[in-house]
Amino acid sequence: VQLEESGPGLVKSSQTLSLTCTVSGGTITANYYSWNWIRQAPGSGLEFMAVVAYDGSTYIAASLRNRTSISWDTSKNLISLQLHSVTPEDTAVYYCASERLWAGYERWGQGAQVTVSS
Question: How far, in Å, are 8, 43, 102, 103 from residue 81 at the CA level?
């Protein structure tokens, strides 16, 4: 399975950041798999953002819930993330990662650098 993130690279403050994770070599509806968005800001650790599971259920981190949405397109085998009202503090590398139930994260994309300008 391979994951590839894509995004705009540069976003202005207050705009909406839209990211896509395209999955190849496997189906996003495969049993017991979930698909995560995780980010890492400069000088910081990894921050979990949101996840969509194989049954379509979703969960978003409480700190981001009021301005984040996650969705999937099973026909295109991709997962999308939208982060609204971005600020420079949202500057980070955004990763997509697969997770297998009880086994943890398995595959990571290469990451998409996103810079938010003020």
Answer: 12, 23, 24, 24
- Distance CA(77)–CA(61), nearest Å, equals 23
What are the tens digits of pLDDT across the range 48-103? 999 999 999 999 999 999 999 999 999 999 999 999 999 999 999 999 999 998 89
3-state SS, one letter per residue, for 10-57? EEECCCCEEEEEEEECCCCCCCCEEEEEEEECCCCCEEEEEEEECCCC
As to burial, measured by CB atoms within 10 angstroms (0-12 exposed, 13-18 middle, 19+ buried), residue 52 is: buried
The structure tokens listed for 8 are 């705009």
Rounded to whole angstroms, the Cα distance separating 4 from 15 reads 23
What is the torsion angle, in degrees rounded to the nearest 10, for the CA atoms of residue 5, residue 1, residue 47 and residue 114?
-10
**SS3 category, 81:** strand
Instruction: Report the alpha-carbon angle 36-65-85, nearest 5.
Output: 100
